[in-house]
F-box/RNI-like/FBD-like domains-containing protein (Rhynchospora pubera), 453 residues
Amino acid sequence: MSSPTRKRCAEREELELDFISSLPDCVLSSILSLLPIKDAVRTSVLSSRWRHLWKATPLRLDDTYLRPENPDRDDGPWGHWTRQAVSSIFASHHGPIITLCLSRFDESAFQPEMYLFVESAVQRGSIRQLTLFSKSSVLFSTYYLPLSLLNCDSLHQLSLYGCHFPQPLPPSIFPNLKELRLRGVPLPNDLLRILLSECRSLETLHVFFCSLDPVINISSPRLRKLVFKLLDFKELIIKDAPNLESLMFHFDRYTAKNVKVLYAPKLQLLGFIDAEFQALQLGRTFFDRQTTPSTKVAETPCRIKMLSSVKTLAIAKEHYLGKTIPDLLRCFPCLENLYIMKYYGKGVRYYSDKDIWDDQCYFSFLDHLKSVTIKGFSSDESDVEMLRYLILHGKVLKKVTLLCSIYMSQKLVENIRRQVCIEERASSDLELVFCLEMENVDHFSPWNELIER
């Protein structure tokens, strides 16, 4: 092979080996933006072509992935090494910041830098997702969000853990925010209602472990998903939520709660409703502990539609107690998925409510019910009778999952199958599944995945 030919072959091989470097900067930047920050920075040593490329790449910075090569250099949850690493990245990177997660600040001495990082991300005008989180209350007990963040046009997702909103709030905040997650954030003086009224684009709201007013009123024209978990208040009122599709809450079961869903015509997923609630209102249907359900005759079509729209329902019930469950189920004629979580109350009441199912007439939801999941199934008479009723009348029931807290021997399983009359099931496609679940009774895996999502 002649010398020119060999040279052309070598050049061709070199080009083929480094084909990725011949791509346009915009394509390479898109690729780098998907890499962990450490790997993106390391590409700067490949060649002069790559030296400054990452500095203009859209940045997704999550400090939880910043770890020193030598673990001994990291001197705390948000030690000096991590602080210097984040500072260095902000100083050298001049491109847009798409995602920023600062989750390892743990000392009040870092507050000024926190302000600088957030301000820098906002000023670049491209931040879409921001997370501020600390396990320690030292920092965020005095940390207030900067006003520039409240007016950020590009922000779509915001997660806050432990910090404070400035008060009073400016007239217009988070103009394009679609998802807001709050954990341990004080929300006094009707602040939650103000947030909902001012965040005109908000579609998803998660409120976990926050201090709230005794009465919570929810009115939001665009809200689609609302999640509450372990909050201290007396009454929750969904007053006007025309686009709400999912309402999930997990309250302290020892604290009486009043829940009123007045107007939510598109509601599809609802729970956990405690079978022994203090008071519950669904549209124009009222429940309380002292009286039986009552429905006013003058129901408007939108309120009837609200009850018919619910496809997935979760109910929490105390062991050996669930007399209100049939009345609840009657309110959801198009129900497709039913979750039931059993718990132990302050004092176990040793009586059974199994006879309530013998007197029930046909439920219209049985024409639609496809799946049932019972957490804490213990083979007591109350459970067996309810399960038997659903199996004998569920025409399209596909799967029943029993999450048992104790080991079920094969003999006990066969005995339960016989008691629930599995051979006489209304749906020939029905599958009855027994699972041993050792999780805490308050943790309901299928439902919690929906809540945390």
